[in-house]
Amino acid sequence: MTFVPYQDSRRRARRQLDRPTIVTAALALMDHVGVDGLTMRRLAQQLEVTPGSLYRHVRDKAELLVLLADEISGQVPMVAEGVAWQTALSDLARAVRRVLVSHRDAARLLASTLPGGPQRLRAIEGVLRVLVAAGFSDQDAAWAAYHFNNLVTEFVADEVRLETAAAAAGRTRRDVLAEARAQLQALPPDQFPTLIRLAESIASDDAEAVFEFGLRLCVLGMESLGRATVAAASRKGTSPTGRSERGA
After folding, report:
1. What is the pLDDT of residue 12?
2. Is there a domain that residue 179 lies in?
3. 42 in the same domain as 86
4. In this structure, are 150 and 51 located in the same domain?
5. Sorting pLDDT into bands at 50, 70 and 90, what band is 169?
6. Confidence of residue 238 (pLDDT cuts 50, 70, 90)
7. CB within 8 A of 152, min separation 6: which ones?
């Protein structure tokens, strides 16, 4: 008499693989290992599929990063309409910052990829539409939106770089900034009197206050630009967008 080892006759369900599934898994993996640690092979292992299966849905890592940037952008609420543009952009900036700090390397990812997904493009469209509706010329709206985006993205990137460097050294952000202030204050006073006097502000540990200052600076600058555009258009007898208003 022979004995046949028990085998479960139920076939293991095959994982349904599609782009949304891949992007969701890739974002979770990036949060764990960072952009540099995210590879197609590692992602395939995470999904328990072969690397070749991924390439049927995503061309390569470069395309995957664009998809990830689009996914992260989709987590940011759309810029509000029907309120003052200053309020809309300020609230949006704070929302973008919250989303970017919630994902590892998110600011770096957005800064290094061109906007190519629908969610990211819709976010850009919303900002441009708000600025044009506020009276900015087409060129001013485009360039103001560009610098507004850089303000938020680069601020978060700096935050993350400092946190990462501090953690790698087994220290806290507060420790690193306190040491930076001490080093500035120890400079020769006859050569660097201003650096010494401003050390507390230069190496401030109040990230919220520094961010809000930069945001306020950006919005005030845009307000000033808008007023100058309207004044120039008025002198020329055109609207801010360049269309003639004479003879209407």
Report:
1. 44
2. no
3. no
4. no
5. very high
6. low
7. 93, 96, 97, 100
Same structural domain for residues 41 and 81?
no
Q: What is the pLDDT of residue 231?
A: 74
CATH number, position 134:
1.10.357.10
Query: Nearest to residue 70, comparing CAs of 22, 5, 123?
Result: 123
Place of tokens 């969701």: 24
CB neighbour class for 78 (10 Å; exposed up to 12, middle 13-18, buried from 19): middle
- Is 233:239 a contact under the CB 8 Å cutoff? yes
Work out the average pLDDT over 205-225: 95
Residue owning tokens 């004479």: 246
- Residue after which a domain boundary falls, among 58, 87, 107: 58
Q: Which domain holds residue 26?
A: 17-58
Within a domain: 6: no
- Considering the chain, what percentage of its residues have pLDDT values greater than 70? 88
16/196: higher pLDDT: 196
Residue 217, burial from CB neighbour count under 10 angstroms (0-12, 13-18, 19+): exposed
Q: Which residues contact 82 (CB under 8 A, 6 or more apart)?
A: none
If one counts every other C-beta atom within 10 angstroms of the C-beta of residue 56, the result is 10
Whether residues 49 and 159 fall in one domain: no
Number of domains in the chain: 2
Spatial separation of the C-alpha atoms in residues 26 and 203, rounded to whole Å = 35
Instruction: Show Cβ contacts of residue 191 under 8 Å, excluding neighbours closer than 6 positions.
Output: none
Q: At 244, phi and psi to the nearest 5?
A: -70, 140
> For the segment 2-38, what is each residue's pLDDT rounded down to a tens digit?
444 444 444 444 567 999 999 999 999 999 999 999 9
pLDDT over 80 (residue 71): yes
In a domain, 224, yes or no: yes
